[in-house]
Amino acid sequence: MGLTLAEKILKAHVVDGNFIKGEEIGLKIDQTLTQDATGTMAYIEFEAMGIDQVRTERSVAYIDHNTLQSGFENADDHRFIASVAKKHGIYYSRPGNGICHQVHLERFGAPGKTLIGSDSHTPTGGGIGMLAIGAGGLDVAVAMGGGAYYITYPKIVNVELVGKLSPWVAAKDVILELLRRISVKGGVGKIIEYTGEGVKTLSVPERATITNMGAELGATTSIFPSDDVTLTFLKAQGREDVWTSMAADDDAVYDEHIVIDLSTLEPMAACPHSPDNVKSIKEIGKMKIDQVCIGSCTNSSLLDMLKVAYILDGKTVHPDVSLAVSPGSKQVLNMMAENGALSKIIDAGARVLESACGPCIGMGQSPNSKGISLRTFNRNFEGRSGTKDGQVYLVSPEVAAASAVAGYLCDPRELGNMPEFKLPEKFTINDNMITLPASPEDAKNVEVLRGPNIKEYPKTEPLADSLTADCSLKVGDNITTDHIMPAGAKILPLRSNIPAISKHCFAVCDEQFPDRALSLGKSIIVGGTNYGQGSSREHAALAPLYLGVKAVIVKSFARIHRQNLINAGIIPLEFTNEADYDTIDLGDTLSIENFKEELMNSGVVTIKNTTKGTVFTAKCDLSGRMKDVIRCGGLLEYTKENLK
Predict the structure, then answer these.
(1) Angle, CA of 496, 498 and 501, to the nearest 5°
(2) Is the backbone peptide bond immediately before 318 cis, with ω within 30 degrees of 0?
(3) S-S: 188 plus which of 59, 218, 339, 605, CB 3.0-4.6 Å?
């Protein structure tokens, strides 16, 4: 029996555990990436391990999230990251060089390699055949120190692509179609592997759009084969030496099989407020719009920008629409300037923003009250744009550009014939905004620069024998990390200051939660299905840790957030009977008498609701290693004891 592509890479990198589906395996990590919203804490954690130099093949620190410098905080964080990178052997991508996933695809990614990044859209690297996985900052810090990265050996889903996309139908429509079919929960515990004749019709940027937004499926990662299309892209980047041909065996066996006929797809949009609330443009109709934002790690490649420039050429953005365009990297922006695409976009009246995440994480360009905003981004969670009642639709660049001119949502197929858009045979290569680390000898003299906003990792405690605590918050299904720990221009600068950022924890759901949790001293959160979906931000675990949360009891967890809770020493429990969720109210006192014993032995704990006089059970499936992490009070303490 042959292996899938994902299994080939997994098997080549297993350093701990049995290569058996459903069991925990430890992977050797070749590359890591961080961005500044998560990187500061990741490097604080790395420093706490006491390791001088990173032990990966390549680790890169990117500045792309917190680029709006309205105070000293972001600038201080950037200076801290730059000094840590120089001292510990990490490449440093300076502000303005571009979005981490776009730049990594261009300059560092390599087929067959493993990559974890402290950003949930790290699977973008699957577009060139990497096994690229989003993770919490502490997991990335451990990998930089030479430790393994642990996952449950996932199911592998074969998405077979047949046919070819019709004119003006985009790669974005492929992933929107998959989200429409299987939902934001459909990929949990799975790797999405693309095969079929249709794969050959997609360029690397198009493949990367699809793998990038696979994060919205809840998938561990997504991956395309490395083929002649991959080689052409890497050769254009002057990096053909890292290419290797990689694909699934002909007799590979998959756990699931989905077929998507590219020729039948049409332009689509994810409607508010979830990426899987997908309808065709035809179904939605000619809806008046207020704003269009083109960019993000999903759709900011040179190919995307060439299409936008063509659509805008000789036209003017509708007077009722604000259009903002964010090229994904300095390379993309340079080439747009060289080939004339930039002037066409400027002439049309677009507001050209820096090569950064920007509006995607609420860092500027919030829409007007109740404003309808078309965005080529990957998430449209409520309030994420910075406007609480903003109505965000996720669309392709083709839909976005055509609609910006029309003033209403429109089908780009109405534009008529589509020309062939080709990537250049050679990209403009200038890595002058990537700072190399100091040599190990010179690194000894590098001073790490800390500003007053940079605080230590919150204190953790070993697992207690018993737990009695009040329910400090009860929330429903599909709670995202944006609900738990919001992004945006006001809050993101506090990412290195857990005491300060914790004041905003769950503010979207209950503004009283931080004060309530602190006053209780210790507490338990109760939630519904798919709790913690979305970003990899470990702050969604670290802020509750600081506020005294000891356990979270839900119907089901999203993968990365569950791991982040374990890393922080917070126990992730799941109802054995989901109906018990309805028996708990805010303020109820919950007691687990034999907490440690039951957790370590059966993994099923008995919980008494002393307020209601009821009893129920919850489970927590833990591997032997995870039990040791929990006993120590979290991954940082465990790593200090075990990684030498």
Answers:
(1) 95
(2) no
(3) 218
